[in-house]
Every structure is written in structure tokens, then in C-alpha cells.
Amino acid sequence: MEKQSGNRYPDIEENLKIVRHSIAEACGKAGREPGEVTLLGVTKTVPPDRVNAAIRAGLEVIGENRVQEYLGKREMINLDNVRAHLIGHLQTNKVSKIVGKADMIESIDSVKVAKAVSDASLKRGIVTDVLVQVNIGREDTKHGVMAEELEQLLRAAAGFSGIKIRGLMAIPPIYDTEREKRAFFSDMCKLFIDIKGKNIDNVAMDILSMGMSADYREAIMEGSTLVRIGSAIFGSRS
Ligand SMILES: *Cc1c(COP(=O)(O)O)cnc(C)c1O
User: Fold this and answer.
1) Which pTM was predicted?
2) Long-range contacts of the stretch 76-79 (C-beta < 8 A, 24+)
């Protein structure tokens, strides 16, 4: 039996404390309230007992990349008071497996996937919260829509009643300088504000998901409202 009190993973508790502190610090620098930024713990490759340790230490949102891995671990994770996001690429043939089991899908990158998620949601009588992933660095190797295609996708997907579009997500490219890094985040924030200003029906631009272990402070400085942090909480992945 696993003990509920006491923590077998003091590293996770300590890391969470450090990350929370850094989030608050970055918010302070940016003149923002720490409550404006949601911490999502990225649990890909992390065994369920370590995920549960993070939850006991107060983590409220987790993110998984792969549908298969998440579904395999899900039963062993204490999700009672936790929201789970899918943050990795979603193929149409996996949509029916994930809908109803994730509180948010952050990685919508085509009208086709948006439609599939909507249809699967309607079938279950639910509405699924989604973000649209933007390929802000215009990289061949990354998923997401190009900035100039975003509005068109949003206008098409806004008509799908099984999804609620809540905002945008991005994974910026590897950068060489601090300035480059900030520029991608700042471009994303501009795009976010610009789209928000268009007040598209059924599109609520209230979540901007950007920032990972190496760069969440900069992302917060540039307006992120949700940071996705893996290794800084759980240690490096094998
Ligand atoms: C792995 C991953 C993260 C977290 O990466 P870390 O560098 O470990 O914090 C965030 N977002 C996505 C989409 C990921 O795949």
C-alpha cells in the first residue's frame, strides 16, 4: 500500500515549489498576478506513481503527448481533482479514443481534426475545450497552422458545436539568443490579441499556452497564461 501522507518523491515536491516561485517572480516582473498563469505538468514518460506524487503536492493540470500512453496510464492516475490536457499531435484516427477522456485538446491544427473532435464530442453529448496550435517558427518539422491561416481555421471551426475554442498554443523553435526567444513569444501574443479583437462567435481567446522548462519565465513576461513544464518538475526524461 502506498502511503498517502509523507512523500516518497521529495524531488518533485521541491521542484514544484521552485517552479511556482519562478512563475510568481516572472509574473511580478511583468506586473501580472500569479493567478493569471496556469501551471501544467507535462507527464509524458513519467510513471503514474510520480504523477500522483505531483498531484499530492498540489499539481492541478497535467499534459500528455500521446493518446496511447495517456490512455494506458490514466486508470493509475488520481484524476479526481485534476484536469488532463492532450498537448501532442492528434491524428484523426485517434480522436474517438481521446474525446471524453481529456479536459482540453491543445493541439488542433486543421479544420479536419477540429471537425472530428466536434463530431466525437457531440456523439458523447459533451463539448470539448480546444486550443489551436500555431507553428509560430514556420518549421517543417513542427505541427500547427501558419499564422496567416489561423483566422480562416478559426472561422471554419467556430461553427462546430461540439468544441469550444479557448485559445492558442505554440512550441517555438530552438533559438540562439534570448532576444530571438522573446520575439517568438511576443509574436504569439500579438497574434492572440489580434484574433481576440476580432470577436469571432464561439471563439473565446482566453488561454495562451506557451513556455516550457527552459523558457517559461520569458513566455510569462510576454503574456503566456498556461505554461507546460515537464523536466523542471519531474527531472530529465530518459
Ligand atoms: C515535452 C513537452 C513539453 C515540456 O517540455 P520540458 O522541456 O520537459 O518542460 C511542453 N510542451 C509540449 C508540447 C511537449 O511535448
Assistant:
1) 0.95
2) 76/48, 76/49, 76/52, 77/43, 77/48, 77/51, 77/52, 78/52
